[in-house]
Design brief:
Elements (H helix, E strand, L loop, with lengths): L11 H28 L4 H30 L5 H17 L1
Helix pairs in contact: 1-2, 1-3
Length: about 100
Amino acid sequence: MNLVSFDDINSIDDYLLYLLTFSYSMTSLNKLVMIAERKGILSQDEEELGRTIGYEARRCLQVIEDQYTAVLERTETDNETLVKKLQALVKLKMEK
């Protein structure tokens, strides 16, 4: 995945798409840590750090969701449309 650059954000929809992408990333990060802990593949110290990572990921996810909701409310776009746009972008990148 590419980092966000100045040229990537040209509209409020672009901004919302990136927020949506980051929310999926935070959800994946939290799940990764939970799976690693459940499978017992981390040392005790790593598990403790993993719990901290999971906590921070959930905290960031909540902030991202709050921002996403607030910005989405002032647009004419709906969540379903943005999810479909994101799916199309992912499919396009996968085909390249």
